[in-house]
Amino acid sequence: MRLRIEHTTTYDFDQPVHYGLQQLRLTPKSRAGQAVVTWAMSIEGGSVQTEFNDHHQNRVSLIAFDTDATSVEVRCAGEVETADMHGVVGKHAGFAPLWFFQKSTELTRAGPNVRRLAKGLRDEVAEDLPRLHALSARIIEEVPYEIGTTHAATSAEDAIENGGGVCQDHAHIFVAAARALGYPARYVSGYLMMTDRIHQDASHAWAEAHVDGLGWVGFDVSNGYSPDPRYVRVATGLDYRDAAPISGMHFGGAGEAMAIDIIVQQQ
Length: 267
Known about the structure:
Layout: E1 2-27, E2 34-44, E3 46-53, E4 59-65, E5 69-82, E6 88-90, H1 112-118, H2 121-124, H3 128-142, H4 156-162, H5 167-180, E7 185-192, E8 199-200, E9 204-211, E10 215-219, E11 231-237, H6 240-243, E12 246-252, E13 256-266
Protein name: Transglutaminase-like domain-containing protein
């Protein structure tokens, strides 16, 4: 399947921004199940300072705002060819060793809520894949998809306590619980072609767990299945903060409005 993606992020400031710096993880890479055909980034109100691959092998672009900018627009567009890998990404690669993905973070701490949710799965389900799918099903039952109850800094523990959340929360809970069950696990950000609309106001997130004999396998808790050709992986990490599409800071511009428009459609 060939997917066409357009991702536009616009910042408008009430007052000029004296200095601004952003890290962008918006460039997908060719890897198992996907081949980047074309990809380009353009910036108005700023410029790319440098680009590099981080320790998760994410492609990172560091941009600076123009001095006294009142508006900044970042636009990415391209085409990616995808294949059906049944959620299997494959063997581990990269700079970080596999054991690193069993490390807990502030957002993926396995506290009493996470441990209660994962309790008994090792005894109830004998094989790895059915066990991890059972975990995914438990999460969406316990924490149904609900907009507005969480935010970017909500932890897995807090999302369970809230009783609702979005894809970011589901991914954090899965990662925390999978690690508690003994699996290396990581957070994934990227794109999903939806069946009911073309325009979206946010990118998508899911999780991956490392299974002996298969390697990394994806689980989209929010939708209840493993990634298929409608998905494009962009960045991975221990949690959202490692894989956030855009993060950074600025000085000045007291009032800020940000708008995101994402188009994902089949070519």
